[in-house]
Amino acid sequence: MALLLSNIRRAWHYKFWQRQTAGYLRIYEKNNKLPNNEMIGYVLNDKHPKTIRVACDRYMWVMRYKKAFRFTKKIWAHDEHSECRVGDVVRVQPLGYRLGPWKTYVLVRVLHREPRDDELAPRGSEKRNLLLPRSTEESAG
């Protein structure tokens, strides 16, 4: 039953993509030294306008266990053109200053777009904004 559930994913979760792509991303980061503290990660959340939540992986060698471990850091990044969706693999870099209380990174580029059934489906933030005017019309009418 567990195998059947793993094949049929009802909702996107970043841990699934971490397990699937860990080797590729680790080799990419090893071979291509990223400048300016840039990081690669998965978009977890696109529900805020011009903002994305990214899970970035770092691999550190731990001497005690003689093994490389993955550490995940979830950060807020500025997405000026609102081009990212949940599941995309992106490259982000630190701004050097903060945009708001949490946003300290900016999107550099989208490395991989998650294939979707409906390419024209709105982002999480657009869905929410589309729902807001309807509720005001109902209360006015």
From TrEMBL:
InterPro entries: NA-bd_OB-fold, Ribosomal_uS17. The keyword Ribonucleoprotein applies. Residues 118-129 have a biased composition (Basic and acidic residues). The keyword Ribosomal protein applies. One of its GO terms (biological process) is translation. Pfam families: Ribosomal_S17 (PF00366). Keywords: Ribonucleoprotein, Ribosomal protein. This is 30S ribosomal protein S17, chloroplastic. It comes from Cladocopium goreaui. The lineage of its organism: Eukaryota, Sar, Alveolata, Dinophyceae, Suessiales.
